[in-house]
Structures are given as C-alpha cells and as structure tokens.
Amino acid sequence: MEVFETWNDGDTIVLEEGLFEAFLSHTRNFFQLNTMVFRRELLDEVGLINENFYLGEDTTYLLRFFDKYRIALQTKPHSVYRESPDSLYFFCDRWQLDPDTIHLNEEIYKKIEGLSFKSIKVRKHIRDLVAQSDSVSKKAKQLSYIDIGIASKYYTLSYLNRYDRKKALRYCRQSLRYKVSIFNLLLFVKLLFSSKRGNVFLHGALNIW
User: What single-letter DSSP state applies at residue 118?
Assistant: First the structure.
C-alpha cells in the first residue's frame, strides 16, 4: 500500500489518497464520524448517509470521501463515546457468551442474528466498492479477506442454529459459498448427520461479535 502523506505536525496527518486501502488493511477504525468536519457544498457531491444500513452507516458514508478528497486525521482523542444498556452493540458482553454451555435466550439470539445480517449487508457493500475501485493495489487479497468475514458471520449463525437443522444447513451453505474452510466443512458434515452437540474445535471459529 502506498499512502501519500503531505503534512504531519504530530497532531494532524494530511493525506491525499490511500485511505481506502488503509481502512481495508486495519482491523480497527481510525476515523470518527461524530467529529468529522467538511465543507457544506460537498453534500451535493457525496450525498447523505444511507440509513438503510442501520449498522455501519457511518463507515459506509465516510468511505465515500476516502481517496476522493484531501483528508486530515487528528491523532489525539477529541471525543467521548458513551455506552448504554440499550446500545445496538453493547446489549450484553458478547465476548463472554458461550453457546455450548449457556443457552442463549430468544431476545439475545435475535439481537445477535439481526446484527449479523446488518454486518453482512455492510460487508457486501464494501466488497462491491473494492471490486469497483481503481485505487486498491491488492484487490484479490482484499476481496478474499472480506469473503472470509462474510463466511464467518454465516458460519456463526449456522452453529448457533444447530438445533434447527434445516436453518443451520442453509446458513452453512451460505458460509461455504463465500469461503470454504475446515470449520464450515466440518460443521456441514456434522449437521448432515444431525449432531447437535457443541464442539470445542468448531466453537473456536465463532464470530459472535
């Protein structure tokens, strides 16, 4: 990846391009819509946020600016993010959820399922952007990473639904469609034989977050 840095005083980094590929290459966001500032006339070119995403709408909006405009990144924290009990993300500590030992109640499962669908929708949108981009240098590699993420979401939904064999198989086929792995292959075989018990190895590939 080649990033063109035009100015850096320690607090601010000004970039001309390369920000889209930097976003694809990092697991954590380095941008914040809540503190974004831009000229009003850019709305005529970029448009408004797509609220149909419900999740990731801020990310998909900011991607419209990457590699198209000169962008300055503030390197020091300048906002406070507060979490609430009814947060879309933080309705429970998903890092502590163990579907092999703890039965997920319907409310928690529905929230996880809904988030997974929203996440998949955003990932597919980003995949389309990568496929159409002229600025991504390793396009095949980036598309593969995105496919792995989508497959992981479908795999998790399949595992969580293993007591509903028909539904679990449908999700597992979707996972295999995007990226074949030892995990979704073994899960598919397990489901074919109607085995509903948890599995330590398969559990390790879950992406409940």
Answer: H
